[in-house]
Amino acid sequence: MNDFEQLYNIIQSRAQERPEGSGTVKELDGGVHTIGKKIVEEAAEVWMACEFESDEAACIEISQLIYHLQVMMVKKGLKPEDIYQHM
Ligand SMILES: N=c1c2ncn([C@@H]3O[C@H](COP(=O)(O)OP(=O)(O)OP(=O)(O)O)[C@@H](O)[C@H]3O)c2ncn1[C@@H]1O[C@H](COP(=O)(O)O)[C@@H](O)[C@H]1O
């Protein structure tokens, strides 16, 4: 289990170390357009899970949305502090 910043650090280290077989590396290599599509897809899955499925299913989809948002943050060079200042 990871919190927001732990997951961010894992994604950032994947970007730097580029281990073989990493889904994160593949997604980062797809670029902003590809990552953006994953965000939109996961956002829709969050909506559907919250409207029609269990709380657990909603939590799974929300965690996946956060992952893809963080992949975008790393791709853009944005750090958690850059986001926090707007919260
Ligand atoms: N938290 C996540 C995470 N959340 C979601 N995803 C990926 O995001 C996609 C969402 O799942 P879905 O079932 O909605 O996807 P799908 O549409 O069936 O999948 P695709 O066909 O699009 O791949 C899957 O491809 C998941 O692998 C994640 N992939 C990785 N992580 C964490 O990121 C870290 C690094 O992962 P790797 O880079 O793969 O080592 C690890 O600690 C993982 O726990």
From TrEMBL:
GO terms for cellular component: cytoplasm. Its main location: cytoplasm. Signal peptide: none annotated. The keyword Nucleotide-binding applies. Keywords: Amino-acid biosynthesis, ATP-binding, Cytoplasm, Histidine biosynthesis, Hydrolase, Nucleotide-binding. It is found in: Cytoplasm. It comes from the Bacteria. The keyword Electron transport does not apply. One of its GO terms (biological process) is L-histidine biosynthetic process. One of its GO terms (molecular function) is ATP binding. Belongs to the PRA-PH family. This is Phosphoribosyl-ATP pyrophosphatase. It comes from Mobiluncus porci.
